[in-house]
């Protein structure tokens, strides 16, 4: 607000990733408060499923023998997902779905039945949950309806320009009768008009940009050409505006600025996380320049190390998978903490998004921008 007061033409946009993550948190961990009563009444059972999954995870990982039995039946590790990680509940449930058959084989095995002397009650509860088909149906349902939110979160969690990915394709818009394109949405249209009013305080300029916007939406003049209409669906939005936007120069300038900016602050926060690792309470006498240089060296050494063969093989395989901070769980001899970045698809594919054998991998819908096709 202080910056906007001095520079009225500056706009701020909320981080799309954090916004989506807050939505998922409100769904998967709904709080029973007066203001949140409606959401809690609809979503309390999701919190219960999530809590039961955590009980299973903790029961297995907090004891060396149970963890050893688990490793015999399940080829994938049971990730201890950090609470600060985006969509932590969804990531955990996705992993549970992948190892479902291994978990079920484990709890009905002779080894599991023979070794449960220390916590008979919890062991029985864990076994009942894992063998409960209704519980797994709930997990599948949670993953299905949160899928679009999770997919969009993954797409936006990068320092690349992704604003054009916020609106879905024509097929998605036509999927339900209440879905409308951005220019027909009352709230979005009202905010767009406020943006034009702030960006173009002179009435004559504002009239010109409104005319250009109408020509773009109505596919008039140069926007009516065959190539222009066809390339709206085939070209990258920024490329499309560079090729066909010259006749609407005011609107073109806005579109290129919007389509050239990231819509997530995650990249900045990861840099701050590295900085806090280097400039800790024990090293609080480091000068700002030295801390900055160490962050630079640390980050680039990490990137360079991923090109080495030892990063994919050997004892130091994926050494930075947990980021800069590891929190051991009590009694666990084998532990993988997934503090993965969603903008690292190669690592994500290996550790989190492995598909169930025999099933085809999920397809991310073709997503286009409002400025791309109106």
From TrEMBL:
Stored Pfam families: Dimer_Tnp_hAT
Region spans: Disordered: 355-374
Domain HAT C-terminal dimerisation: 222-301
Leader peptide range in chain numbering: none
One of the record's GO molecular function terms: protein dimerization activity
Family matches, as PANTHER family: OS06G0658400 PROTEIN, OSJNBA0013A04.12 PROTEIN
Name by which UniProt lists this protein: Dimer_Tnp_hAT domain-containing protein
Species for this entry: Quillaja saponaria (Soap bark tree)
Upper taxonomic lineage: Eukaryota, Viridiplantae, Streptophyta, Embryophyta, Tracheophyta
């Amino acid at each position: 607000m202080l910056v906007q007061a001095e520079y009225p033409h500056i706009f701020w946009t909320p981080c799309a990733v954090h916004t989506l993550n807050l939505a998922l948190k409100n769904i998967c961990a709904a709080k029973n408060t007066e203001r949140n009563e409606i959401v809690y009444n609809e979503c309390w059972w999701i919190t219960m499923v999530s809590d039961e999954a955590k009980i299973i995870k903790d029961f297995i990982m907090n004891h060396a023998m149970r963890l050893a039995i688990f490793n015999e039946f399940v080829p994938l590790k049971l990730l201890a997902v950090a609470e600060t990680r985006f969509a932590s509940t969804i990531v955990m449930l996705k992993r549970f779905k992948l190892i479902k058959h291994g978990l079920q084989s484990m709890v009905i095995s002779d080894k599991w039945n023979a070794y449960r002397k220390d916590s008979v009650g919890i062991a029985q509860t864990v076994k009942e949950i894992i063998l409960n088909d209704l519980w797994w149906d709930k997990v599948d349902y949670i993953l299905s309806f949160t899928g679009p939110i999770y997919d969009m979160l993954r797409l936006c969690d990068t320092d690349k320009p992704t604003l054009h990915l916020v609106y879905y394709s024509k097929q998605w818009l036509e999927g339900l009768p209440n879905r409308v394109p951005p220019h027909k949405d009352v709230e979005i249209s009202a905010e767009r008009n406020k943006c034009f009013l702030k960006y173009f305080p002179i009435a004559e300029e504002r009239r010109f940009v409104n005319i250009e916007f109408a020509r773009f939406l109505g596919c008039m003049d140069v926007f009516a050409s065959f190539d222009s209409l066809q390339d709206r669906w085939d070209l990258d939005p920024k490329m499309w505006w560079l090729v066909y936007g010259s006749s609407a120069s005011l609107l073109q300038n806005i579109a290129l600025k919007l389509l050239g900016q990231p819509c997530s602050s995650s990249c900045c926060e990861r840099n701050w996380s590295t900085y806090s690792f280097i400039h800790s309470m024990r090293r609080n006498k480091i000068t700002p320049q030295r801390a900055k240089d160490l962050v630079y060296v640390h980050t680039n050494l990490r990137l360079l190390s991923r090109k080495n063969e030892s990063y994919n093989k050997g004892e130091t395989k994926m050494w930075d998978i947990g980021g800069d901070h590891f929190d051991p769980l009590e009694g666990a001899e084998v532990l993988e903490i997934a503090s993965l970045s969603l903008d690292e698809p190669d690592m994500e594919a290996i550790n989190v998004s492995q598909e169930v054998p025999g099933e085809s991998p999920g397809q991310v819908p073709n997503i286009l921008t409002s400025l791309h096709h109106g």
